[in-house]
């Protein structure tokens, strides 16, 4: 979700509407559950209501991080995601839907992802 959002924010800033970008992405091998469902149905609509708390996701990622620290201490992506989730939880609160991670990334870019004109 986070990587797709960073891409969509960049595309929107370049003048491409998020729903148009998602249509192109989802017509290719770049599609994912995030681009096919979460972004168009939960983010672009601004509902942010998938039903899974970001605090719980953060807890799960930290459990995974413990294993990664033991088995693959040179890992790059999961440590970055862990830090991102920590900051997002502080920004939106632990009971917010995990799709609210988008709100944190939007705040960093001063750009809101929503359907419609750029």
In words, what does this structure look like?
This protein has helices spanning 2-13, 18-26, 33-43, 54-71, 77-92, 101-109. By secondary structure, the chain is mainly alpha-helical. 64% of the residues lie in helices and 0% in strands. The model has no long low-confidence stretch (mean pLDDT 96).
What secondary-structure arrangement, pairings included, does this model have?
Blueprint: H1 2-13, H2 18-26, H3 33-43, H4 54-71, H5 77-92, H6 101-109
Number of strands: 0
Radius of gyration from the alpha-carbon trace, in angstroms:
15 Å
Class from helix and strand fractions: mainly alpha
| Largest sheet: number of strands, sense, barrel closure | none
**SSE sequence, one letter per element:** HHHHHH
Amino- and carboxy-terminal Cα gap? 21 Å
Tell me the strand percentage band.
under 5%
Number of helical segments with 4 or more residues: 6
What are the low-pLDDT stretches, counting only 5+ consecutive residues below 50? none
Helix content bin: 55-70%
Overall average pLDDT = 96
Q: Tell me, what's the shape?
A: globular
Q: Which properties best describe this structure?
A:
6 helices, 64% helix, 118 residues, single chain, mainly alpha
